[in-house]
Amino acid sequence: MMRILVAEDDGASRLILQAVIQSFGSECILAADGRDAWDLFLASAPDVVISDWMMPRMDGMELCRRIRNSTASTRYTYFIFLSSLKHKSDVIRGMEAGADDYLSKPVDPDDLRIRLSVATRITELHTRLARQTERLEALNRELFEEGRTDSLTRLGNRRRLHEDLQVVKNYCAVLFDVDHFKLYNDLHGHVAGDEVLCRIGAEVLKICRKEEFAYRYGGEEFLLLLPEQSIQNAIAVAERIRTAIQAIALPHAENSAAPVVTISAGVAQSLEEADSALYVAKRQGRNCVRTLNDEPKPVPERTGEALVG
Amino acid sequence: MKELTKHIDHAVLDGLRDLGPDLLPNVIALFLKDAPVRLAAMGQAIIENNSGSLEVNAHTLKGSSASLGAIHVAELCAGLERMGRSGDLGHAPGLFARLEVAFDQVRILFIGLSARSNSH
Lengths: 309, 120
Known about the structure:
The complex is a heterodimer. Chain A is an alpha/beta fold.
């Protein structure tokens, strides 16, 4: 059943319209001017508004404009102008203000019935369109998230990192990777290697707080951005992660630091320095957390031996 | 009577009768109550040279008379509405006098119609 709001200042016309609309089995709400119609529109969310052109207090144009700009309802309201005005320019103005149709007075019941059946079709289309739009938007949000998430570990990927770095300026970075991961892969296969990365991702998500950002930085490299935090705090977080991963106790016989999977971590206030600090951790035996301060000075010449990995 | 009925579109009245037995007498009663108020306002507007008020009241009376099939009254109202919109009320008194006559005629007719439908 359709709910139809009639805005008409002339009582006789109003009475007739009500009788016609009720004869169709539709619900009819009556307003004597535009202002009343606007209030009733907000209160009753009608499917169709049939409005006179000229009315006291608020005319049909203004009513139409308000209804079109209204965000009160997500449903589409079909708007029919009602007027004895025969001027084409007025009809055009009305349609431009967002009206869907117009009827000339006095209203012919058969005419109105035809217009209302069109109104039903159009409002149903709008409803379907709104539902599809909603679904598309949800899908878009999902894709947006998916495009910024590493599918294996569910941490952020490089794209998310790149975007976050535009916003987060003051942070501590914890960069870590799996010790001798290549050897692990060679020995246990890539599926098992992926499983290790998954377990590490899960541990990181458990330890990270909401305002902290965790990413899979590269193959077996992970990164945490800790906004507005001191190096000491960042070291503590890195240490928690290192301990947690060692505690999973995934056997890794080829690891020089321990018989299980471990990580090395570098902590600094920039990505570049964190990378250098990670290198320090590798040099200093792996399965540890280091900053650039831990490096003995002067910096010794780096040799080509296999310190990385 | 023939002279009178030509001012009325009987198809419109028949259409209203089709919508139920009470509608036509109710609409006529409302019209006979409201129209004199509109007419008085229009007369006043012409005296005061208030074209805006003439336009609005003529517009409303045009709508209600048309919805009852009183086409001649509606046409005269349309003329006065146009004058009101243009702001030139020079010819309004003459047209208004014709409107008053036309309204009296449909009033007699409508009163007769109402009496007849009430006696049914």
